[in-house]
Amino acid sequence: MSSELRTRLITQMDLHGLAPNTQRGYMMCVKALAAYYKESPEKLTDEQIRTYFHHLLKERNLNKRSCHRYLTGLTFFYRHVCRREVNDRFGLPAWRGEKKLPTVLSIEQVTRLLSCEPILSTGCC
To answer: Does 117 reside within a domain?
Structure first.
């Protein structure tokens, strides 16, 4: 990645108020993509980016959550630095993490919770 491109990326991340760790992560994603193809990421097509994600999933054995981090960083780069719209996520499928269901209280637990008298000092029921 050229120093001019790096500067533009840093400027955009600063303007968007991204946290330092997020900035490091996004920079790493763009650098890794550029290193994989050994050319400027500005010139890469959506097909090349899809091929790169296939490489991440199959050859580097990254999980979908890690790939989603790459996708977030690269989407930011292409939208805000290259001014290229990526509404379709480069044609990649949506990666959904496993959603944890909330704990549901029983009727008895809710009744017990609601019948508790507040204690002014510390503690509960």
So the answer is: no
At residue 123, does pLDDT exceed 70?
A: no
Name the residue range of residue 83's domain: 3-91
Is residue 46 a part of any domain in this protein? yes
Closest to 78 in 3D by CA, of 38, 47, 45: 45
Taken as a whole, the chain contains a residue count of 125
Lowest mean pLDDT among 28-32, 64-68, 70-74: 64-68
Domain containing residue 36: CATH number: 1.10.150.130
